[in-house]
Amino acid sequence: MHNRQKKVIFSAGGVFSFACVLIVATAMGTRFWVKATVLCTTGAQLVNATGPELDKFIGSVNYGLFQGQRLKQCGLGGRPFSFSFFPDLVDVIPVSLHGSVLFFCAVLILFSSLCSAFFMYNAFGSPYETLHGPLGLYMWNMSSSVCSCLILILYVSEVKLHRLSESIANYKEGHFVYKTYTEKFEYSFWLVFLVFLTHCLNILLIRLAGVQFPFWEAKESEANTGAADLMY
Q1: Buried b vs exposed e over 13-40: b needs ≥16 C-beta within 10 Å?
Q2: Residue 62: its pLDDT value, please?
């Protein structure tokens, strides 16, 4: 492949990686990771509400990594309340799991930045082998993909296994009990999945530029050495 085509491909990879940095940073600051509706079971049982009457007892919760908002309804109208995870919900959420999600988000921003820098360096600079060359491009993009997967897996575990929406809805509630009615992941969560797909696309772009996978090169060199040994 011509050098000009390689420059175009590597430049596109650099732009995509820098876009990943902006996407993750933006997603971390929003509160649109999860949206759930919660049912006030205490109020619904008191009046034996069924069918359309349940709408008066269904509130909502939406939150991200740092903050969120909940709307409580127990038959007397909605009560909006804004909250932050730190320090408000430290005693309610699984802090170690939530901290791991934040840590890997920061690592993903760092690795995506390195991907962007190395793509541009390979496009317009004079890279040498190992970390600054093709091996570095593969390594940082694969590391970013792994970080993206870890963020998604850990966050799903936090929300589903630890019933995060219910814990938030029942925060500082002494008389009413809330249960999750519906729950879905919002667009900020899926932006991280988009980042994962983008880094996978970057790996394909590196291969399209004519750079072999590192482990394929090792296998090919071993095969060639074996053939040479047989000849002599």
Answers
A1: bbebbbebbebbeebbebbbbbbbbbbb
A2: 95
Give me the pLDDT at residue 17, please: 95
Q: Which two tokens stand for residue 49?
A: 């509400």
If we measure between CA atoms, which residue out of 29, 115, 38, 112 comes closest to residue 79? Answer: 38
Spatial contact of 37 and 13, defined as CB atoms under 8 Å apart:
no
Is the pLDDT higher at 88 or at 184? 184
pLDDT tier for residue 231 given thresholds of 50, 70 and 90: very low
Domain 3-210 fold is Butyryl-CoA Dehydrogenase, subunit A; domain 3 (1.20.140)
Is residue 227's pLDDT more than 50? no
* Rounded distance between C-alpha atoms, residue 168 and residue 158, angstroms: 12
Q: Is the pLDDT of residue 221 over 70?
A: no
Give the three-state DSSP class for 204: helix
Nearest Cα to 33, choosing from 154, 118, 214?
154
Entry pTM = 0.86
DSSP state, residue 55: G
Domain parsing of the chain, residue ranges: 3-210
Dig out the tokens for 89 from the structure: 């919900």
Instruction: Give the tens place of pLDDT for each residue, 109-123.
Output: 999 999 999 898 888
Cβ atoms of 207 and 120 closer than 8 Å: no
Q: How far apart are CA 31 and CA 24, in angstroms?
A: 13
